[in-house]
Amino acid sequence: FVGDFDGDGEDEVAVHRPSSGQVFLTWDLEAGPADAVFSFGERADVLLAGDWDGDGVDTLAAYRESEGNWYIRSVNGPGPADHIVHFHAHDSTSLPIVGGAFP
């Protein structure tokens, strides 16, 4: 997935490894090791990135369909969710998304 993880106004790439819960973030688009590696969420969670607090830095949210909860972090690092928001469509065919426009 993508997001502006360092607040420089440009999107970077990230990888989520569901089998271990690890997240790998990079601050640029150059080859090399991840700039941040940490665990977040549970195996079945869908991870998304967004600027949840308006500070110009995208951080992670884990959407847990089984509960209908969004677990939102305010920083890009390990730790528990800073906010938990209950919001879902009560429909297992729904897909959580962040940003963008759809016709």
The side-by-side strand order for the widest beta sheet comes to: 1-2-3-4
pLDDT average, as an integer?
88
Q: What's the helix count? A: 0
Low-confidence stretches: none
Quick summary of this structure?
This protein has 103 residues and is mostly beta strands. The protein has strands spanning 2-3, 12-17, 22-25, 36-39, 46-50, 59-64, 69-72, 83-86.
Describe the protein's architecture and organization.
The chain has 103 residues and is an all-beta fold. The chain has no helices and eight strands. A four-stranded antiparallel β-sheet has the order 1-2-3-4, with no helix packed on it. 20% of the residues are buried.
Primary descriptors:
about 100 residues; four-stranded antiparallel sheet; 8 strands
